Every structure is written in C-alpha cells, then in structure tokens.
Amino acid sequence: MIYIVGSGIAGLSAAIALRRAGHDVTVITKELSGGSSHVSKGGIAAATAVDDSPQIHAEDTLRVGDGLCDVEAVKYFTSEAPVIIEELIKMGFEFDNDLRLEGGHSRRRVHHRTDETGKVLTEFLLRKAIELGVNIVEDELMALQVRDGVIRGFVTRERGLISNVDYLVLATGGYAYLWQYTSNPPTNTGDGIAIAFRAGAVVSDMEFVQFHPTITTLDGEVMLLTETLRGEGARIVNEFGERFTFKYHEHGELAPRDVLSRAIYIELMNGHKVYMDLSGIEGFEEKFPGVSDFLRRHGLSIKDRVPIYPGAHFTIGGLRVNVRGETNIKGLYAIGEVADTGLHGANRLASNSLLEALVMGFNLPRYLGEPWAGPRLDDGSLTTVRLRDNGPLMSVDEVRRVNWEYVGILRSGDGLRKALSLYEGVNTAVGTRESNAALVSYLTAYSALLRTESRGVHYRVDYPGKDAGWRRRIYLRVSP
Ligand SMILES: Cc1cc2nc3c(=O)[nH]c(=O)nc-3n(C[C@H](O)[C@H](O)[C@H](O)COP(=O)(O)OP(=O)(O)OC[C@H]3O[C@@H](n4cnc5c(N)ncnc54)[C@H](O)[C@@H]3O)c2cc1C
CA 435 to CA 427: how far, in whole Å? Predict the structure, then answer.
C-alpha cells in the first residue's frame, strides 16, 4: 500500500499514476474539497504553440526566478510540460482552444478551461482516481515516524499510528493561508512542512512567499481576480481612474506579481483606493464565466470598478526535494506546493505551479524503487533551528495577524525580529494546527531575517537592493 496525504492536483495525479502502475493506493486528506487546487484559476503553463518552445518557457521561468532557480529543475519541468498536457488530453480532459497570456510570459502558453481550470481539473482527476479504485479517506496527518533517516510510519488523528510504511507521499500544499489577507483556503496551514521538519526533513526558500496583487472581497466572499484578466485587457486604476502601475514598472498591469503587489500595497498604505477596471475585456462573459457570476452575485457588472488588494497566494519554500520528489528522509516524497524543487527560484512564473504538481504526481511511478538520491544541498547554507516543546499555543488567527504585519509584502529587520520573538515564546513542537502554523511562520521569519537583500518576492525595506553574495539558498533543519 502506498499512502498519499492530500487530495489536491499533486496528490490525485500521483494516486492515478501509481494506481495505473499497479500499486494499491490510499489518499488521506484533511478535507476533500480543501486545498488551493480547487480554487485555482488561470491554468497550466506549457510551450505547445508553434512560436514557443520549452527553451523559451525555461528562459521566462529563469528570468522571473531572479537568479535562484535550479536550472536543471527548470529544464526538466518546462520540457515535461507539453507531455503532461498531452497526457491530460489523452485521459479525456478538455482544454479551451485558446492559449492565454499571463504576466512574465513572453508567449501565450497558459492552457485553461474557462477561468476555473483548477476546479474543473481537480474534479476530473478525483473522478478518474475513484474509477481506478483509489481509496480516499478524510483524516488528518499529525506526525511522522522516522528512524535512522528512513520513513517507518505516520500518525493520523483518526487512525493513530500506521506502521511498516515503505513510502509516504506528502501532497499537503503550501502555507499561504497564514497571512491575514490571502487567496488561500483555511486548509493551507503548512502542516506537511511542519510535521516533516520536526521529523528531520530539510526545508528551503521559506522566505519566498508570493503575494497576488489582485484579490477582492465582496460581501465577505473572497475571489482571486486571475492574471489572465489583465492579459486580456483589464486595467488597474486608482480612485481618479489613473493607471498608476506604470509608475512602478514599464509593463504596467503585466509587470511581475511581486512588483504589482508592492505597488498596490504602497498605494493603499498611502490612502488611495485601488480598483480593477474590466470594461476593456472583449467577450468577458464567455471568457470569464466564474468572475462574471461572482460579480453578478454581488450586484456588479463589467462596467463597475472592482476594489482590489494584494494577499499571500503561493509559498515557494517547502520541503527540499529533487525533481522526483525525494526528500532527505528515505521513502518520504513531497510533491506539489509542499515541496521545493527550485523550479520557481525567488519568484514563481504564473501557472508554473499546477504544472509542477502535475509533473511530479504523474511521473512519480517512474522513479519508485530506484536508488534514493535525495535533494542537493550544495547551493546554499544549512542552519539548525531549535523547537520549543512547552509554552502556550498561538491561535492561527493571531499567527496570521503577526505574519501580515511583520512578515508581509514590505519587511524590515525590526519587524522580522519582533515576529521571531513572538514565535519563540510559543509551542512549536506538537502536531496541532496552531503549532504547525507557528512553526512554519517561525521558519519563514527566520529565513527572511537571514536574507539581508531584496530578491524576487522577498522585499526588505532596510536592504532594498539585490546582493550577488546572496545568490544562494537558505536551508533549515531541526536541531538534533
Ligand atoms: C486562488 C488561487 C488561484 C491559483 N491559480 C493558479 C493557476 O492558475 N495556475 C497555477 O499554476 N497555480 C495556481 N495557483 C496555485 C496552485 O493552485 C497550487 O500551487 C496547487 O493547486 C497546489 O496543489 P497541491 O496539490 O500541491 O496542494 P493543494 O491543492 O493545496 O492540496 C493540499 C491538500 O492537502 C490536504 N492536507 C493539508 N494538510 C493536511 C493534513 N495535515 N492531513 C491530511 N491532509 C492534509 C488538503 O486537504 C488538500 O487536499 C492558485 C492558487 C490559488 C489559491
């Protein structure tokens, strides 16, 4: 039996592929309809157009990644991308005919199904997994059992200890829910990262948290206004109707997400209002039925300006793995957003994450049973971190406030030290949601304080420039 934890696009792709390869598979998930995959919008990046190639896709990924991408990982994922699109089509998934353009891409290469690609694809993969006989149960991972660097078992809330495990696949997603303003669902508290870290797994790039520039909340309902809206002609304006983004970047609305997020954040902090103006999009209702429905539900139309704000969206950091998903713990795989392959570097190119989740999931059986290589750790420095196994717990809501205030879009040494002092006072050693949230946030603030430069999505007001000496990763591991 192979156990997979998480029922997002990464977990379901792995389940289908492993089942097809003849394995018995159980998927354990905290919430079947949880995770980012269900709410993801824009689509999947792959170079399939005649004017495009994996090499151009790789060049775009490397440029946006700001000097920290793992070049081998970039080559791997961009060359596997057309293969995975072909595979989905063969399985019966229908993409819309057009390819969309998103920020940072030099070609139209975003494969999508309306503006709800993730939702439709997750439901499709779930149906396939069930048809193939994958066993899916709702339960929650609490701890891992690791001896001599090898996975032996794991503990869940309902089932207790499951032992004699040869392989465990973590597909538990990222931790972007841990900021007060976010596009992520409440399941995304970084459980897999915290749990595996306590058991000895190495994490990397935790400081790189991508903020999405265009989120809206209408009558309490949160909606991400996908990047492709801007590719299709949406404008970002202030209360005077001015397209202020050109003050911050020559590409205006199509500037990379980090630049736009900072621009909107600064305008809001300066007391301005910021809106998305959708009126320039041709064929809006057909191209964006999800956004159109959302506006209608809240009494708005394409003619109205929609108030927007930036929020935490995607976490680049995670469990350090190679492109096969192998962590430094033998038998423990991590795939999708819980993992860090180095594909995204210091900044993720839009629509590369569903791609990464799909490729890692579908390709997993290829590598199963091969000698365990584990990740490379020679492109950075490894620091050990002590856990606190007593003291009070901090509520997830409080963690979210601390992160937004001190570990957010604009960071400073003083703010990060303040966050660390708060997290150092709470219990980070037990497997509860609160303790996981505080531990992952502690690791994020810790790495962000170490990185005394601004690069990619990590911005320090006290170190606004890039420092060539920091072209290396920060690896963290628990103190023995
Ligand atoms: C609004 C939004 C739009 C996006 N749009 C795009 C896009 O257009 N293109 C793109 O490439 N990326 C997009 N992303 C990012 C992308 O959706 C994610 O990176 C991707 O879906 C991650 O998939 P995953 O399977 O790794 O994790 P998730 O889909 O987050 O799934 C995690 C799973 O783990 C389970 N889980 C978590 N903790 C536990 C636990 N302790 N025990 C048991 N189960 C657990 C959850 O229940 C869930 O099933 C978007 C993200 C958001 C939030």
Answer: 6
Q: Among 257, 305, 451, 455, which one carries the catalytic annotation? A: 257
Q: Which atom of ligand 1 is nearest to the CA of 184?
A: 53
What was the pLDDT predicted at 254? 85
Hey, whose CA ends up nearest to atom 48 of ligand 1?
A: 35
Report how far ligand 1's centroid is from the alpha carbon of 173 (Å).
Answer: 5
CATH number of 2-173+313-367: 3.50.50.60
pLDDT digits (tens, 9 = 90+) for 392-446: 999 999 999 999 999 999 999 999 999 999 999 999 998 899 999 999 999 999 9
In the chain, list all ranges with CATH 3.90.700.10: 212-312
If you ran DSSP here, which 8-state letter would residue 390 be given?
S
Residue minimizing CA distance to atom 9 of ligand 1: 351
What is the Å distance from ligand 1's center to 135 Cα?
Answer: 20
DSSP string of 58-121?
Answer: HHHHHHHHTT-S-HHHHHHHHHHHHHHHHHHHHHT----SSPBP-TT-SS--EE-STT-HHHHH
Structure tokens at 56: 């151009």
Adjacent-strand bridge partners of 276? 236, 306
Start-end of CATH 3.50.50.60 domains in the chain: 2-173+313-367
Dist CA 158 CA 181 (whole Å): 31
Short-list 175, 176, 207, 178, CA closest to 380:
207
- Tell me whether residue 100 is one of the annotated catalytic residues: no
Mean pLDDT, the chain, whole residue set: 95
Q: At 356, list the tokens.
A: 């990464």
Burial of 299 (0-12, 13-18, 19+ CB in 10 A): exposed
* Residues framing ligand 1 (Cβ under 6 A): 5-11, 28-31, 34-37, 39-43, 117-118, 140-141, 171-173, 183-184, 187-188, 191-192, 224, 313-314, 336-338, 351-354, 357
Compute the distance from residue 9 Cα to the ligand 1 centre, in Å: 7
- Yes or no: domain 212-312 corresponds to CATH 3.90.700.10: yes
